[in-house]
Request: fold
Amino acid sequence: MNSLRVDGGAGRLTFGDWAMECTIGRDGVCAAGDKREGDGRTPLGLWPIRGVLLRPGKVAATGIRLPWRWIRGNDGWSDDPADPAYNRPVRLPRAFSAESLIRSDDAYDVIIVLGHNDAPPVPGQGSAIFFHLSEGRPTAGCIAVDRADMLRLLPRLAPGDAVAVMS
Reply:
């Protein structure tokens, strides 16, 4: 298992001897147990990589060793603590609040799904903590890097890898 290491204070992500700038939540980092839905903080901890979601027509799937699939137009992610499918992929439209995985920006052209609050999900302790493309601003709690870095990194990742978030 290899770990991508995120230094939240320095805004740096390292993988082996390779380092790049990254962005995290707009309100910094927090202990995983203190993470709350919508707080804008990135949870500290070691988060296994669950898989990759790719936006068709925006990125090639060449050389990816992680489990992956194309994002479909009705794909969403539940962010409603009252939803029985909280912090899970869902189909839209939905009676509960859910984030669309098709965004007007390019941030979700590549989504690496992280295993934060998913085994099992605890309602209200944070959802949709992803590793995705940077849009040049802090995230809502995710980790993001620029497109060129993500596309160079993606084929190097393998099943069993994880993301370690540190302060």
In short: The CA atoms of residues 2 and 161 lie 5 Å apart. The chain has a mean pLDDT of 97.
